[in-house]
Structure formats: structure tokens, C-alpha cells
């Protein structure tokens, strides 16, 4: 990276412009921070040493690049952190879906278009505006696309604090938002880090269906429903299947119970609107999707990450937790001889649950 503008910019004014341009591009907020993440590096290493990352080997693969931005992108002096709200107006109430065991619960962030490319394109446009103002400069845009401690950087940029559930919380907007970063070699003025405001509250810890938040600010991903339904590619541990309820892709309980989300802002991005009624679709209908239907209907969506086998596995568990009915039994029996051993195993478990209920 190397800034090559002919004259030195007014970096204080530029920082203000960057935040304004970010809002004009659809981001809810932007902040700026330096690259020091020493305490967060230690926290990450303890988490890895405890094995709390489960099968997410990529969390350990990149060494210190995750906590040292200048090692990931040489020349980085500052990080521009942005956030974008993701729950659009008209989305079915999350608790109503969770409390209706005939439906499948999909984490609210995954109901519409996958945010990665959308936000990366917006960050690229932000970089182009900076370039138009000052000339060539060094930068790299990231949205979950590289080893980045995005929550720690966002906290240091003043966007929010990391809550006891390990999710970032903003005093004015709760926690329903995505994060993205623009690493840059510009010596911009840094914002003040956000202060923490969880206090003595532990609602997120107490409500977690699988008790994955093993202590304040410590999440054992191996027990987390988001990990189990998305990252885990094999069998879901039997003792965690019943607590999963009807959650088939991700989980929002720790955010839903958080009192700060009374300030959550609705998304202004129309592409985040729910597709295929996935904000409350019937489990038996979703379970009936062929692989071609799954691939077609989830095109451009985060749900693709679980794969078709994982999709059926997750729904089989939810059907096992559903009230006994002939419709559920027929749906499960139709998949009892599925070619995938993983699917067959979870269907057999679900059929046994249905038979005993």
C-alpha cells in the first residue's frame, strides 16, 4: 500500500467526508480505528486453545494475521469499519416463528440476499469516492472474506461494544446489523472506542437453548445452534438436537432477548427482504425441496452455506421436535432411505422421537 496523492489531504475533513459518503452508499454508520488489537489477540488465542472453535479450523489457520491488520494487508494504518442494518420491514415476528413448531426458523440475517457481495461492492464504491477526492491510496475491502477481527475493530471504531453473547451492540441500533471493513494506508484520525453497557444483565446467557455461552463473553461454538446448523458438516450431537427446536439455519435467541434491540433499526436495503416466505415457511414444505429446488431457491443467499445435505439434516431435527402428526411422519418416512448417511441418521432419530410422542 502507498498513498500517492500529490498534496497531503486534510485528513480530519476527509474522515468526515468518508462517514458521510458511507451513509450515502447505504451504510448505517462508519467509524475509523487504528490497528492495535493486543488484548483481543490474547482472547482469541484462549478461545482457540480451549477448542471452542470446533471444526472451524480456518479460525486458527492464519495465525496473527487476524489480530494484526498490517500483517494481513501490509501498510495498513487505519481501518474504516461500517455497519448495515439487515431486518427489513414486514418480516414475520421472530418469536411467533420460534413458538410455531410447524415452521422452520431461519436467522433473520439470512432471509434475503447474501450480504457479502453487496457490502463489498458498496465498500469498493466508498474507496472510489476517496480516490476521486485525494488520488491513489492503498486499501482492501473485507466482508467476512479474510481473517479479520471485525467486532473488535468495530468496537474500537466506536460502532458498538461486544456483548456477553459476543455479538456487537450499538446503543442506538441494537445488534441486527452486518459489519464490513476497508483497510487503508491513510493516516486518518481515529474515533473513540465504544464503551460497554451490558451491566449485570445476563438474559442472553440464560436464554441460549443449548447453553453455548459458557461465561460472559465466552461462546463455545460447538454448542451454538448457528455452528451446528451451518458450520458443522457431520452429525449433530444427539444431546443438542432437542434444544434446537425448529431452528434450521442459525439462531437469534440471544439477540431477540437483548433489551438493546428495542432500538433496532429496520433495513433500508430491499435485497434483504425475505425470499420464498422463509421468515416462517412450513417445515414439511421445506423438507420436500429437491436438491435442484434448494439450489435454485437459495441462489445468492447465505443459506447455501449449509448445503443440501445439511439443509435436510437440520429440518429432520426440527421435524423430530415438532408435535406428532401424520403429515410429519409421512414427510420423514419419505426421506428414510435417502442416499446420504447423515440425512438417514437424523431422519431415523426424528422418526423415533415422533413414534415416542
UniProtKB/TrEMBL annotation:
A biological process from GO: tRNA queuosine(34) biosynthetic process
Cofactor: [4Fe-4S] cluster; cob(II)alamin
Domain 4Fe-4S ferredoxin-type: 187-218
Residue sites binding cob(II)alamin per the record: 66, 144, 168, 179, 226, 251-252
Active site: 144 (proton donor)
Keyword set, alphabetical order: 4Fe-4S, Cobalamin, Cobalt, Cytoplasm, Iron, Iron-sulfur, Metal-binding, Oxidoreductase, Queuosine biosynthesis, tRNA processing
PANTHER family, per database record: EPOXYQUEUOSINE REDUCTASE
Protein's recorded name: Epoxyqueuosine reductase
The species this protein was found in: Dyella tabacisoli
Gene transcribed to yield this protein: queG
Amino acid at each position: 500500500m502507498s498513498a500517492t496523492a500529490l498534496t497531503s489531504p486534510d485528513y480530519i475533513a476527509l474522515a468526515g467526508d468518508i462517514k458521510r459518503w458511507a451513509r450515502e452508499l447505504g451504510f448505517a454508520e462508519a467509524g475509523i480505528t487504528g490497528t492495535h488489537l493486543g488484548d483481543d489477540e490474547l482472547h482469541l488465542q484462549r478461545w482457540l486453545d480451549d477448542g471452542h472453535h470446533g471444526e472451524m479450523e480456518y479460525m486458527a489457520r492464519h495465525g496473527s494475521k487476524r489480530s494484526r491488520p498490517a500483517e494481513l494487508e501490509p501498510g495498513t494504518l487505519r481501518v474504516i469499519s461500517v455497519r448495515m442494518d439487515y431486518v427489513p420491514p414486514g418480516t414475520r415476528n421472530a418469536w411467533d416463528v420460534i413458538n410455531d413448531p410447524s415452521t422452520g426458523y431461519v436467522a433473520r440475517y439470512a432471509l434475503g440476499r447474501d450480504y457479502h457481495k453487496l457490502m463489498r461492492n458498496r465498500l469498493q464504491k466508498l474507496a472510489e469516492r476517496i480516490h476521486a477526492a485525494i488520488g491513489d491510496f492503498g486499501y482492501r475491502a473485507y466482508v467476512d472474506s479474510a481473517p479479520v477481527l471485525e467486532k473488535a475493530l468495530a468496537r474500537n471504531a466506536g460502532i458498538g461494544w461486544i456483548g456477553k453473547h459476543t455479538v456487537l451492540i450499538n446503543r442506538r441500533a441494537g445488534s441486527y446489523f452486518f459489519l464490513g471493513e476497508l483497510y487503508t494506508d491513510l493516516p486518518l484520525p481515529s474515533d473513540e472506542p465504544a464503551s460497554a453497557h451490558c451491566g449485570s444483565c445476563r438474559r442472553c446467557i440464560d436464554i441460549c437453548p443449548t447453553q453455548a455461552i459458557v461465561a460472559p463473553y465466552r461462546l463455545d461454538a460447538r454448542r451454538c445452534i448457528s455452528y451446528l446448523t451451518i458450520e458443522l458438516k457431520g452429525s449433530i450431537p444427539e444431546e443438542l438436537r432437542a434444544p434446537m427446536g425448529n431452528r434450521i439455519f442459525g439462531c437469534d435467541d440471544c439477540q431477540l432477548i437483548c433489551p438493546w434491540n428495542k432500538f433496532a433499526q429496520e433495513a433500508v436495503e430491499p435485497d434483504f427482504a425475505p425470499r420464498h416466505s422463509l421468515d416462517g415457511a412450513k417445515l414439511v414444505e421445506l423438507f420436500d425441496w429437491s436438491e435442484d429446488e434448494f439450489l435454485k431457491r437459495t441462489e445468492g443467499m447465505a443459506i447455501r452455506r449449509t448445503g443440501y445435505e445439511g439443509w435436510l439434516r437440520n429440518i429432520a431435527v426440527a421435524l423430530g421436535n415438532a408435535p406428532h402428526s401424520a403429515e410429519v411422519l409421512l414427510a420423514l418416512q419419505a426421506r428414510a432411505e435417502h442416499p446420504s448417511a447423515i440425512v438417514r441418521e437424523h431422519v431415523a432419530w426424528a422418526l423415533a422421537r415422533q413414534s415416542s410422542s
